[in-house]
User: What shape does this take?
Amino acid sequence: MAKTRLIIADFILSFMWVWSGALIKILVYKVLGLGYVPRGEFINGALSIINMFLFAFLGKISEGGIYNPITALPAAISGDFSRFLFTVGARIPAQVIGSVTGVRLIIETFPEIGHGPRLNIDIHRGALTEGFLTFAIVTISLGLARNIPGSFFMKTWISSVSKLALHILGSDLTGGTMNPASATGWAYARGDHITKEHILVYWLAPVEATLLAVWIFRLLVQPAKEEKEKMKTKSD
Assistant: This one.
């Protein structure tokens, strides 16, 4: 029952995530007519941070619902094999299906909204860009979970601002998505979700970057933590 609830929560949150991003752009650039000027970008950034706070809260009340495969992978890698299989075989597909469904409805409702993130550089630099952005945000998330485990507001604030900054860095190159499910939703609508460019840049690079971030974090942080515990035991 708990696993079924998580799958449903992942689907709903992924569906809502692509919709919320589209609605923010419609509000800022279409309804308010601000365009890509500093004021419009500032309002877009502020609304994006509020949106990330909202989804962090929704993830909390849904008892672990996630809209991004990159967020789900570190815990799956750190857990047992059954947890890994459940994440890869059920939760991530639910996130992808939720994103695809959401994007299709967005395009039918607001056909002028655009076509989502696109690769504007060559495939190798695109993969490096998405890989670097993903590595950075996963490392930040792991550090926050370890150093301030109980502070919802502080963790969400630092994580949201970091995601926004990294998104801005990569927005003109790859879209700065750091979310394979969301990227697949838009790519599916365009019909290029099975191309080499999409799979390499928006799936393989982020997944490999996540694995690398988790491995490096364990390598550097765990020994320090164990050493601190040994020193504390000796002092006691």
